[in-house]
Amino acid sequence: MFNSLSGRFLILTIIFVMLAEVLIFVPSVARFREDYLLARLERAQIASLALEADAMLDPALEVELLRNAEVYNVVLRRDEVRQLALSSPLPAPVAASYDMRNPSGLTLIADAMRTLVNTDDDIIRVFGNPVREGGLMIEVTMDEMPLRDAMLAYGRNILILSAFISIVTACLLFLAVQVLLVRPIKGVVDHMQSYAKAPEDARQIITPTAGVRELRDAEEALQTMQQQLTGALKQKERLAQLGGAVAKVSHDLRNILTSAQLFTDRIEGSDDPLVIRMAPKLVNSITRAVNLCETTLAFGRVEEPAPALARVNLAQIVDDVVDSERLAAGDYDLVITDEIPPMLTLRADGEQLYRVLSNLVRNARQAIMASGNAGEIILRASEDDQAWSILVRDTGPGLPKKAQEHLFQAFQGSVRKGGSGLGLVIAADLVRGHGGRLELLETSENGTSFLIKLPKADLALTSAAE
């Protein structure tokens, strides 16, 4: 119990209430002592009035008056004359004197503490002002032990009352904490445990109900996190299912393409000029398709190979990409301009670079054709001491805002209806594998530009390949 939040609140409440009562106890006892002594002075003054009424008191009556006043002697001072009003023998010498005429608070507290710690049966002298202007001063001698006993009894009453108040306050606070804090927190914990058992079940997502603002903020934050996690798990599940399906399709497609590759060997022997011109491109396309299937299968086994870096002629790769996309565009009013320097050689994996450029150019072509307007795609390349740069620019309609926000996220960055959004994700991953980066330079209603940066530094390329 005491390790719980409510249990600790209970203990702290008792401690704080008792501490407050202790702070109240000291001045309260000091005030009680002052009232006690003033009452004795007043009773002694009343007893002395009998002497004024009858100058000759019977000794027995004088003793009774002193006993009722609980003092030994009463001295009144009138007109600077000190007069012994009532007297009796003192059992012991006077041990201390206390002046009750306008004492300070600290003096009262110090005298009260001194009385409490003193266990001797001392005789004390007390000075005070007579009531109703009955003189200049009144002085009495009395036992201190009855005063101490009365102070202890009063202190015990205060402590008992404090303990009762502490217990009642602590119980009320305990119940309040249970209702306002512990129960809602336990509800949140129960929701978290239920959600942990089936995070993909959207019904387990918490619904904020707390009335306390801080707890409601926590519930809302937990709700947002659970919604995001559930969405991510569903997406990963779809990706896993898609990966399994793609692996199966790639396996069968690789076998089909391998058979087609055997047929192309015979086609290459044809004397037909058109066949002679188209056969190498067909062979290259089928070879790339086979490699893509093998790479997909490897990826499905979490064995995506590092790029096989070699010196490749960029113009040849771009030429294959351009020919393929021109064929796909058919008679559509689309111009694909190749401005790659013929002799530009860079260090990269030729097959992976082909896939990167093919994805970018294909996306540009599909965007232009979807707009229904004529367009142009331009490919440029340059190099400096640090890197090779490849620019792919189009005059299409530009990327919508949603696509820009999720540009390199699978299944979220697609512009075309029905698209998977994997093209740019694959392209970015392949470029990153070379130690480079793929970035969106600009996009507007006038077109979109992507830039591929491949570093020349062997260290960067080696690190990317590992």
UniProtKB/TrEMBL annotation:
Molecular function GO labels: phosphorelay sensor kinase activity
Against Gene3D superfamilies, the record matches this protein to:
1.10.287.130, Histidine kinase-like ATPase, C-terminal domain
Under the heading Pfam families, the entry gives: HATPase_c (PF02518)
Swiss-Prot/TrEMBL keywords = Coiled coil, Kinase, Membrane, Phosphoprotein, Transferase, Transmembrane, Transmembrane helix, Two-component regulatory system
Q: What is this protein called?
A: histidine kinase
Catalysed reaction(s)?
Answer: ATP + protein L-histidine = ADP + protein N-phospho-L-histidine
Give the Histidine kinase domain ranges: 248-458
List the SMART domains hit by this protein, alphabetically.
HATPase_c (SM00387), HisKA (SM00388)
What EC number(s) does its UniProt record assign? 2.7.13.3
